[in-house]
Amino acid sequence: MTGEPPWVRLDPRMLLVHPLDELRKFIVPLAAAALFGASQGGGPYVAILAIVVPIAIGVVRYLTTSYRIADGRVELRRGLLNRQRLSTPVDRVRTVDLTASLIHRVIGLTTVRIGTGGAGNDDGDLTLDGLTVEQGRTLRATLLTDQRPVTEETAVQSPAAARFEPGWLRFAPFTSAGLAILGGLVGGGGQLLSELDLQVDLPAEDLAGLAAVVVAVGLLLLVLVLTLVGYLVANWGFTLRRDGDTWQVSRGLLTTRETSIDVERLAGVAVAEPPGLRLARGARLTAIVTGLGSAQSGSRVLVPPAPAAVVRVAGGAVLGSDEPLVAPLTPHGAAAVRRRWVRALGPAALVAALPALLVMVGGPGWLLVITVLVLLAGAGLAVDRVRALGHAVVAGHFVARSGSLLRHREALAVSHVIGWSFRDTWFQRRAGLTTLAATTAGGSGKVEALDVPVREAVGVAAAVTPDLVAQFTAGEPVHS
Amino acid sequence: MTELRDPAHRVSPRARTLWRLQSGIGGAVVVLGLVVAAATWREYDGRWWVVLVAAVLAAAYAVVVPQWRFAVHRWEITDTAVYTQRGWWARERRIAPMSRVQTVDLAEGPLDRLFGLTTLTVTTASAAGPLRVEGLERGLALQLSQRLTRNAEDAGGDAT
């Protein structure tokens, strides 16, 4: 490269997008002003202002924003009064997302977000709002491959590791979003019902009953439709494919979003199987990306709720071996099982004792049903949690699974383990158990195996990082 | 491969006194608050019993926990790794390779300074939290932080 590369403006078509955007932001105050202004008789000025101001802001923003790649840094400058100059080294770039809202898509533009995974929330992110899709893709290729020379054949687009199928829609009601909506509606619906009851108790008892049923069915249908629409909007056209040195996830019906994850920063994956999804034989796949915390969760989705088999295949493709996701796990033994039971039944017993006490002091006998139900729920939870417990070291990955309501199986590449933590309470120590965690620079910062027998835990850590752990195992302390 | 041994070194014995003072002050503040409440709010006859129980609990905490904490707290730094152990009821052992050390911090609160003690914090790239050694003598802590910084530099890489 000769001389300083010039500063480049964003795409001029942003002149169209910015005013529309500003208009959207100001729509409420503008409408209020227009109404107020009209009643005061100052109509034309307000209308002119409403058109001129957004356009002016858009033009200024277009004229004052420019970017360049120079000396191995991406630089962005923007602002008229408040001049801002953001710059980040290219080799710190961890993800490049292309997001296109509906407006952007209509005129063929995309927003490029360059993620550096800095500790500060979004401060580390450089956003270039408004490049052509072509420019965006080229920029992404430059940024993500600059770090290593790429051979030509890897540049050829490979077939997708996973691709959206309409049948996946059946998982929509089982996603956490679906359950949250359902919960909200049941809560709100209950209130609604009680109010309805008050109003319709005059005509006839059975009419009120009918109304309740109709409302309940209506609510259920509404939830179904909402979750389906939500799933479609977020995940329509989903594909996961390897492109050179990155994994690319693209999805979205209205706003399309293309996320790239640098292969070298992909520390591992997590398969999440909440109970709803498990019932429908579904699962979700996320990536553990070095330098990306769990806060930037949007960047980490590899496969949205989909058939478990598809998730395993995709995860296998990402990890380079499906062993970590399908291999049988080492169970944690009798002491760990006991601990799950005690921890599930203990709180349940406390809750269950209350109705039982009430019955003893003369409460109605049917309260005992609650006691039994709570205890059964606790037992169910314990059984499910026991079934989940397990860990393994297979195919160069540390694998751990736990949880019931939030069951997840995580596989972390051995080369991304940056330390260990053994955490145990007095009860755990007495049972000879410890919670083993491999720390890593991505995701929640660690992959945790709950209640592992102590010797087993040390064995696992030593198998994964022999040099590191061997010096601290029982024997002569090395004084230094 | 059997079990992990304890890290080689204890923290300064003065740390135990410091922790006693800290938990003593904390407990005294709570009990004092309760005394004031009991003196002003006269609805409940057994209120002085509550204060008494709280005072006994606070005293027990100030006696037992610092001792326990001191028995648990240990550290070791080798050429290739940092190994710490802390906590009391819940014990946490952390091992971090030298090549993953990002920053080394020394911190002293006002009470720490009174005792000449320092907290050494070793951060890695993991969001799971840093390794921490409390109650090190100031001179030793300085020496350790210099050694850690030098070793981490030698290990190279961007520590992720």
TrEMBL record, chain A:
Keyword Cytoplasm attached: no
Which ranges carry the YdbS-like PH domain? 62-142, 397-455
Q: Which InterPro entries match?
A: UCP026631, YdbS-like_PH
Q: Which residues form a coiled coil?
A: none
Signal sequence, renumbered to the chain = none
Q: Where are the transmembrane segments?
A: 45-63, 168-187, 207-234, 341-360, 366-383
What Pfam families does the annotation carry? Answer: bPH_2
What UniProt keywords are attached to this protein's entry?
Membrane, Transmembrane, Transmembrane helix
- State if Membrane is listed as a keyword: yes
> Which PANTHER family does the UniProt record give?
UPF0699 TRANSMEMBRANE PROTEIN YDBS (PTHR34473), UPF0699 TRANSMEMBRANE PROTEIN YDBT (PTHR34473:SF2)
What name is this protein filed under? PH domain-containing protein
Origin organism of this chain? Nocardioides antri
From TrEMBL, chain B:
The parts of the chain that form a coiled coil are none
UniProt xrefs under InterPro entries = YdbS-like_PH
Pfam assignment, any one: bPH_2
Q: Which domain of life is it from?
A: Bacteria
Domain YdbS-like PH positions: 72-144
Could you list this entry's UniProt keywords, alphabetically sorted: Membrane, Transmembrane, Transmembrane helix
- Where exactly are the transmembrane stretches of this chain? 21-41, 47-65
Q: Output this protein's name.
A: PH domain-containing protein
Taxonomic lineage per UniProt?
Answer: Bacteria, Bacillati, Actinomycetota, Actinomycetes, Propionibacteriales
